C-alpha cells in the first residue's frame, strides 16, 4: 500500500499533522520550505545570532576575570556557581525554543532536515560551560542556513565552527614538528580527523586506514579557535609542515595554509563512499531503519543537496511500508505536541516546559531509567520509540527527552550508523 503524497509529506517527511495546518501538496512545496526557511532566523538562540556571539565573548571575559581574581576559594566557587546557573538557565530557554520551533513551524520537512544534519555533525553542550551557549548557535548559523545548498559548503562550515573544534578537541591539536608544538612539547589530537572520515564523510568500514586518520589530523593542524573571541582561526605556527597523504592524495607543503585542509574537505565531500554513506543515513532517517539498497543507490550525491532530497522523495520506497520507521524521542515528542495543537493558547506543553526548568542543581542528569540511552539528535542509533503510557504520565521524562534531543545529555554520543 502506498501513502498519498500529502500523508507522506506530513508524517514521513515532516513532524506530523497539526489541526488547521494544510500539509504540503507537492514536492515543490517541500523544496520551498528548504529555500524559504533557510533565509529566516530560528527562534533560538536567545538574543539572536549576533547577540549570542556577544554573550559568548562576555562569558569568556567573566570567566577570565574570575580566574584572575584574588577572591578566596569559597567566594570564587559561589561566583562561578552563579555564572553556571545563569548559563544553564539560558541553555534551557534555548532548548525550549528549539522544541517549540519544531512544534509550531509549518515547515516540517525543513525542520526534520535540520534535525538530521545537526545529528550528523553532532556536538555536545556539556563539553564545557561556553559550549552551553555555542551549541544552539552552531545549529542556527552553521547548519540551518546551509542544508539547501551543497554538501561541500555544509561540510566546511560545520567543520570550522567552534562547536566542532571544541567538542572534538581540535583546539588542542598541534603538529608535533610545528614551531609551537616542539617548543611546548604538545602533539597531535586525532579526534577531528577520525570523526571526519568515520562519521561526517566516508563512513566506518569504507576502506580508510589509521594512517589516513593520522594524515588527516596532520592536514587539519593549524585549524583552531581564537579563545578570546571564541571564533575559528588558523595558526601556521601550530600546523605540521610538509606533505601528508590521505587516501592517496597529498596535501600541504613547506608552508601550510588554510587551503590545505579545505582541499581535503572538498575532496572528501565528493568521494563516492561519502555519497553512499550519507544517502543511506538520509534514507534511514526518513524512511526505514533498514532502507532498501535500490533507494540508497538512487539517492546520488552530486553536490546539490536539493537534488539529493528530490531523488529520495521520488523513489517509490518513499511511499511504501508505512510504520517501518520508529520515531526517535525528539520526533515522538514534537509529533505528539503538534497533534495536540500545542502552542495555540490551550496550555498544552506548559507542564513540559515547567518540568524542564525544575531541579536546577540536576538539570543535566537523566531520570535513572533513561540513563545511558542515546539521544535523537546527538546519537540517533535507531532506538525504539518511548512508551506512550509512561511518557504521558511523567512530564519530567518528557523534559529529559527535550534536553537530550538537543545534544544536552551527558549520555549522548556521536551517531554511529
Automatic annotation (TrEMBL):
Short name of any one Pfam family annotated for the protein: DUF1800
Classification via InterPro entries: DUF1800
Protein name: Uncharacterized protein (DUF1800 family)
Taxonomic path: Bacteria, Pseudomonadati, Pseudomonadota, Alphaproteobacteria, Hyphomicrobiales
Amino acid at each position: 500500500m502506498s501513502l498519498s503524497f500529502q500523508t507522506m509529506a506530513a508524517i514521513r517527511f515532516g513532524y506530523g499533522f497539526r489541526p488547521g495546518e494544510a500539509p504540503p501538496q507537492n514536492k515543490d512545496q517541500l523544496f520551498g520550505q528548504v529555500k524559504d526557511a533557510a533565509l529566516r532566523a530560528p527562534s533560538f538562540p536567545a538574543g539572536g545570532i549576533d547577540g549570542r556571539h556577544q554573550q559568548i565573548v562576555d562569558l569568556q571575559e567573566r570567566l577570565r576575570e574570575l580566574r584572575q581574581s584574588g577572591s578566596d576559594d569559597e567566594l570564587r566557587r559561589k561566583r562561578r556557581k552563579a555564572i553556571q546557573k545563569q548559563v544553564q538557565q539560558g541553555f534551557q530557554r534555548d532548548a525550549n525554543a528549539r522544541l517549540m520551533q519544531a512544534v509550531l513551524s509549518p515547515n516540517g520537512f525543513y525542520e526534520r532536515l535540520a534535525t538530521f544534519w545537526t545529528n550528523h555533525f553532532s556536538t555536545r553542550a556539556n563539553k564545557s560551560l561556553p559550549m552551553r551557549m555555542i551549541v544552539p548557535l552552531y545549529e542556527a548559523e552553521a547548519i540551518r542556513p546551509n542544508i539547501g545548498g551543497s554538501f561541500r559548503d555544509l561540510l566546511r562550515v560545520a567543520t570550522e565552527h567552534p562547536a566542532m573544534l571544541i567538542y572534538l578537541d581540535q583546539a588542542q591539536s598541534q603538529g608535533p614538528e610545528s614551531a609551537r608544538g616542539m617548543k611546548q612539547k604538545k602533539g597531535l589530537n586525532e579526534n577531528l580527523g577520525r570523526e571526519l572520515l568515520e562519521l561526517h564523510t566516508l563512513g566506518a568500514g569504507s576502506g580508510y586506514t589509521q594512517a589516513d586518520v593520522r594524515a588527516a589530523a596532520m592536514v587539519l593542524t593549524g585549524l583552531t579557535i581564537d579563545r578570546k573571541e571564541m571564533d575559528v582561526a588558523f595558526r601556521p605556527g601550530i600546523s605540521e609542515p610538509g606533505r601528508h597523504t590521505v587516501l592517496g592524495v597529498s596535501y600541504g607543503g613547506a608552508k601550510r595554509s588554510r587551503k590545505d585542509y579545505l582541499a581535503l574537505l572538498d575532496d572528501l565531500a565528493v568521494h563516492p563512499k561519502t555519497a553512499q554513506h550519507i544517502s543511506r543515513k538520509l534514507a534511514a532517517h526518513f524512511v526505514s531503519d533498514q532502507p532498501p539498497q535500490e533507494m540508497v543507490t538512487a539517492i546520488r550525491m552530486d553536490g546539490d543537496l536539493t537534488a539529493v532530497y528530490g531523488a529520495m522523495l521520488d523513489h517509490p520506497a518513499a511511499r511504501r511500508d508505512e510504520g517501518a520507521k520508529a520515531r526517535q524521542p525528539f520526533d515522538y515528542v514534537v509529533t505528539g505536541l503538534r497533534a495536540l495543537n500545542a502552542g495555540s493558547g490551550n496550555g498544552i506543553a506548559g507542564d513540559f516546559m515547567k518540568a524542564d526548568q525544575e531541579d536546577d542543581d540536576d538539570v543535566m542528569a537523566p531520570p535513572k531509567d533513561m540513563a545511558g540511552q542515546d539521544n535523537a539528535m546527538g546519537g540517533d542509533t535507531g532506538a525504539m520509540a518511548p512508551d506512550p503510557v509512561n511518557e504521558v504520565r511523567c512530564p519530567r521524562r518528557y523534559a529529559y527527552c527535550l534536553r537530550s534531543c538537543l545534544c544536552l545529555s551527558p549520555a549522548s554520543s556521536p551517531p554511529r550508523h
